[in-house]
């Protein structure tokens, strides 16, 4: 064992790897002996190094094999560890032992370590501050999952926490705060949490004390408060005023404190705004105070000593402003997050109480700050800001001509950001102000700063994103003239940006770019050819490929065909250089080929043999993942890595390689979708690569592309079979590959949006293959998977809703909750779509399995459900009633009471769906509908006749009510048909719901052609009205 431990600590890679292999074998074969030896080493090891190694190994090993250990071994290990805690004196090593205790505590949950909490309580009362601090640290590891055991000691916890917060040691105070945070995370109800709110004053006092002399611990304490906000933001509600005042006035605005400390205090309040926006809104002047402090940080963070000459030249693209770090960056981020969380109704007044004065200030820093503020709050405040666009644009445009160059740059930046956030309103209303200003700024003969000119070109891209072809076309001559001039400048950044902006304009105006095609395409091809092999020109080559392909998409195949072929030859010559997998040019290359494929369609097929090998190499990139101890990790070795801390370990992954893999996967999907049967010869090869990526957990976009590839492969097989008149078994074989792969991935996919995408992909497979393409056992498997999906959604929603107290019921949902509900509803919407396709394509074959799913949707139509889920429940029963045909008769008695009930809902969308469903039940319900006819007619007439029935908000629902009346009149017996048809005709034509209007117009034509007596009226008295209706259609 001693030799093995020495080998595990060896500096020689081969010896260490061999030892690690040996250790894994021993751990698997003899878990009891291994764990006993590790704890023995921790307690009695010969050196600090070997004891530390044993502690690190024990932490992971015990978590992994705990359930495999015998009861006697478990009890022995627990006892020895507690003894080691009491005997050890080295504070750093004690922390390692504490982590092992935490790992066992988590593994041995639910009262299987009864001696632990009493021992920790004793340590928390110890006279030695190091022991006491460690006791609270371990308590923080344990309380979060102590479960029912915690409640047995609840009476002891509060005095324990109070003593910690009043301790003279800042370290003890912070560990106490961490334990309180852990306790709060274990509280499943507000009732459990509320007693701890009595500690708020002491918690704040502990932070204040640390701020006075121990900022390291003050920051640790602030981090704990932020953790509490993330889990239970309403914990701070009783003393929000005192806490916010302390954070803003005594910490963030205290220039004597270290920057990191000041930033954390503001972060606390911004996080609170995101998690509990109603608390911030209801606290008088608090939002305005947070905005004011954020603006102060921006002004304070602006660099007044910047070298303007160098800044103007901007010769190095990596030459970014240092001020983008620190106070400046945090002030910007705070404003953005506040606006998104709080919304424009409150945020705009708070911000604009400062902005006009800042705009008028002689100090350039305040003018810049005001512009930054406007651009940062645009996204979150767009609904309200759109109403005040004239005033906002009026404040910005004078600063486009400001004397100070950096103010001009920020004004352009502001215009660009608002063009994105407030489009297309700002484009429609102010194009004649904004575009001439941007064109002028791009003129290097008038604008002395190359950096400003380049930024104006960048802002033009933002403007074009939401501008119509008609709006942009009159400005093309001057816009493209300026960009052509920038392309000729001996300035790398100017050239790159001009190329990118030309591409954006081409996409925005489409065929309107054709008159300018010859001005740019030869230059771009020449640039691509001349720069070949020059490493310093790699990025501009990529930009040129991107621009060429985007122009091709804009102008179409006829204009682009020959240049596309030349471009492909240039791309092939680049491929011959065998670029490394993470070379940025590869991404540009693959995406350019994908666009050219979209233009050329089947003409692109001959290029596939040359393109696919490089693409598949990128698809096959393995993730570069490393797990290192946080204390010993080499930060210099993590450049280009995304790093996540999990406990004391750092997990890092190389992101550039993953992005290249994701891009390559998406390109394969593009080829599959665009070429269909032309891609058929490569299906087996591509399927072999893509199927395992359905569970590639390192990157969501990779999984997304893998999901998309499955129905695309099925469609390629269908297209090939139809065009070549091949045997149908080809389609069956590909479906047999794709369907189970998608179904298996659906059951293990953790991300709700990708669950939705997988449901859509299965539906697309079924739609492509057509009638009865799935066997009975496959239909059963789909139903079982969908049922599990719906049950999992219920669990997530219950967790999300939690246990809200009465005073919280009316508080608005926070951003996270809104996004979660949106994701769930999107996923369930796709479940409904898939069920619809299964009903459509399998006659009555899916109905036995539908019975397993319907109860979930029917339950959502109860009073307890969120409105979004009521809409989904109604959408589901609408679809079933519509698609089931005559089989719908069996469901009418279940569906109609629900439809009639919700036909008077105050929610427009739910009401419209219910009214539509009544008509579908009348159409397909046969005799089963008869008991509901009278009530249905009365309900529909009431809806159609009520005040404001044809108002903008209600018209679509009313249209559906009238359409349903027509279905009842045509397909069911009614007692007073003359009244029904007379009213029906009096309302036509429908004008709100276009889709329903087309169907009703068609129905009217059929009824007239069939000489329907009640429609034509007595002695054809309704003919004049009918002619008038047709004249309006």
From TrEMBL:
Acidic residues: bias regions: 805-817
Keywords: Coiled coil, Cytoplasm, Nucleus, Protein transport, Repeat, Transport
Residues in coiled coil: 9-36
Principal location: cytoplasm
GO cellular component: cytoplasm; nucleus
Biased segments, Basic and acidic residues type: 795-804
Pfam short name (any one): Importin_rep_4
Protein's UniProt keywords contain Cytoplasm: yes
PANTHER family xref list: IMPORTIN BETA
Protein name according to UniProt: TOG domain-containing protein
Organism (species): Guillardia theta (strain CCMP2712)
């Amino acid at each position: 064992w001693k030799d093995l431990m020495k080998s595990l600590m060896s500096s020689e890679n081969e010896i260490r790897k061999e030892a690690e292999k040996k250790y894994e074998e021993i751990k698997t074969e003899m878990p009891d002996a291994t764990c006993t030896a590790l704890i023995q080493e921790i307690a009695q090891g010969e050196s600090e190094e070997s004891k530390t190694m044993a502690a690190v190994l024990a932490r992971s090993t015990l978590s992994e094999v705990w359930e495999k250990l015998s009861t006697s071994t478990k009890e022995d290990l627990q006892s020895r560890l507690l003894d080691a805690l009491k005997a050890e004196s080295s504070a750093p090593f004690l922390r390692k032992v504490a982590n092992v205790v935490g790992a066992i505590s988590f593994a041995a949950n639910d009262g299987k370590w009864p001696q632990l909490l009493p021992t920790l309580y004793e340590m928390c009362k110890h006279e030695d501050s190091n022991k006491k601090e460690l006791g609270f640290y371990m308590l923080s590891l344990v309380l979060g999952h102590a479960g029912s055991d915690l409640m047995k000691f609840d009476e002891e916890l509060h005095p324990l926490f109070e003593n910690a917060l009043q301790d003279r040691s800042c370290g003890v105070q912070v560990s106490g705060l961490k334990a309180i945070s852990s306790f709060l995370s274990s509280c499943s109800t507000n009732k459990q949490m509320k007693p701890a709110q009595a500690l708020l004053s002491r918690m704040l006092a502990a932070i204040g004390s640390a701020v006075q002399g121990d900022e390291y611990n003050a920051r640790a304490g602030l981090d704990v408060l932020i953790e509490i906000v993330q889990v239970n933001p309403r914990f701070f509600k009783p003393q929000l005023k005192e806490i916010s005042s302390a954070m803003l006035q005594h910490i963030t605005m205290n220039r004597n404190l270290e920057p990191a400390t000041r930033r954390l205090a503001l972060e606390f309040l911004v996080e609170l705004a995101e998690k509990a926006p109603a608390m911030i809104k209801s606290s008088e002047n608090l939002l305005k105070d947070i905005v004011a402090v954020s603006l102060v940080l921006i002004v304070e963070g602006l660099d007044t000593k910047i070298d303007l000459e160098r800044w103007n030249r901007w010769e190095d693209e990596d030459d970014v402003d240092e001020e983008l770090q620190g106070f400046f960056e945090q002030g910007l981020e705070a404003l953005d997050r506040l606006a998104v969380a709080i919304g424009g109704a409150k945020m705009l007044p708070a911000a604009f109480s400062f902005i006009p004065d800042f705009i008028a200030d002689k100090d350039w820093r305040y003018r810049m700050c005001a512009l930054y503020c406007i651009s940062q709050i645009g996204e979150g405040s767009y609904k309200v800001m759109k109403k005040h666009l004239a005033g906002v644009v009026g404040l910005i445009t004078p600063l486009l001509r400001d004397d100070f160059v950096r103010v001009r740059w920020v004004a352009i930046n502001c215009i660009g950001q608002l063009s994105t956030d407030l489009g297309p309103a700002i484009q429609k209303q102010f194009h004649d102000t904004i575009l001439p200003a941007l064109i002028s700024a791009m003129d290097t003969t008038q604008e002395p700063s190359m950096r400003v000119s380049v930024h104006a070109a960048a802002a033009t891209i933002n403007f074009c994103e939401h501008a119509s072809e008609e709006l942009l076309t009159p400005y093309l001559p001057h816009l493209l003239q300026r960009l052509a001039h920038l392309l000729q400048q001996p300035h790398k950044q100017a050239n790159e940006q001009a190329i990118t902006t030309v591409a954006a304009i081409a996409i925005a105006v489409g065929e309107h770019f054709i008159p300018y095609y010859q001005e740019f395409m030869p230059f771009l091809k020449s640039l691509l050819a001349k720069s070949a092999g020059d490493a310093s020109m790699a990025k501009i080559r990529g930009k040129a490929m991107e621009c060429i392909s985007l122009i091709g998409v804009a102008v179409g195949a006829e204009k682009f065909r020959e240049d596309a072929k030349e471009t492909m030859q240039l791309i092939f010559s680049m491929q011959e250089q065998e670029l490394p997998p993470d070379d940025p040019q590869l991404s540009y290359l693959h995406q350019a080929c994908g666009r050219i494929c979209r233009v050329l369609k089947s003409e692109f097929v001959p290029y596939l043999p040359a393109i696919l090998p490089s693409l598949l190499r990128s698809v096959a990139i393995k993730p570069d993942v490393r797990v290192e101890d946080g204390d010993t990790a080499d930060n210099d070795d993590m450049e280009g890595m995304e790093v996540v801390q999990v406990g004391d370990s750092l997990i890092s992954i190389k992101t550039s390689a993953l992005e290249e893999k994701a891009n390559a996967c998406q390109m394969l999907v593009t080829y599959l979708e665009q070429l269909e049967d032309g891609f058929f010869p490569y299906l087996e090869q591509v399927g072999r690569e893509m199927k395992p990526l359905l569970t590639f957990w390192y990157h969501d976009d990779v999984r997304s592309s893998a999901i998309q590839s499955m129905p695309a492969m099925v469609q390629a097989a269908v297209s090939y079979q139809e065009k070549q008149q091949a045997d149908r078994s080809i389609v069956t074989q590909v479906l047999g590959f794709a369907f189970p792969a998608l179904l298996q991935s659906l059951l293990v996919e953790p991300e709700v949006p990708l669950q939705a995408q997988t449901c859509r992909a299965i539906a697309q497979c079924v739609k492509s293959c057509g009638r009865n393409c799935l066997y009975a056992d496959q239909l059963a498997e789909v139903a079982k998977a969908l049922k599990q999906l719906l049950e999992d959604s219920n669990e997530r929603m219950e967790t999300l809703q939690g246990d809200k107290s009465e005073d919280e019921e009316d508080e608005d949902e926070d951003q996270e909750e809104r996004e979660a509900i949106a994701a769930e509803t999107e996923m369930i919407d796709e479940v409904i779509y898939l069920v619809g396709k299964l009903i459509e394509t399998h006659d009555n074959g899916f109905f036995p399995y539908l019975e397993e799913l319907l109860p979930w949707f029917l339950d959502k139509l109860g009073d307890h459900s969120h409105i979004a889920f009521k809409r989904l429940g109604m959408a589901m029963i609408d679809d079933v009633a519509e698609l089931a045909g005559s089989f719908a008769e069996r469901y009418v008695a279940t569906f109609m009471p629900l439809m009639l009930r919700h036909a008077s809902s105050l929610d427009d969308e739910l009401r419209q769906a219910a009214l539509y469903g009544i008509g579908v039940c009348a159409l397909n319900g046969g005799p089963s509908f008869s008991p509901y006819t009278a009530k249905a007619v009365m309900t529909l007439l009431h809806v159609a006749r009520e005040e404001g029935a044809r108002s903008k908000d209600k018209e679509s629902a009313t249209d559906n009510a009238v359409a349903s009346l027509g279905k009842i009149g045509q397909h069911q017996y009614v007692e007073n048909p003359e009244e029904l048809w007379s009213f029906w005709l009096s309302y036509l034509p429908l004008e709100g719901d276009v889709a329903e209007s087309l169907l009703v117009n068609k129905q009217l034509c059929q009824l007239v052609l069939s000489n329907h007596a009640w429609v034509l009226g007595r002695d054809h008295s309704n003919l004049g009205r009918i002619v008038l209706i047709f004249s309006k259609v």
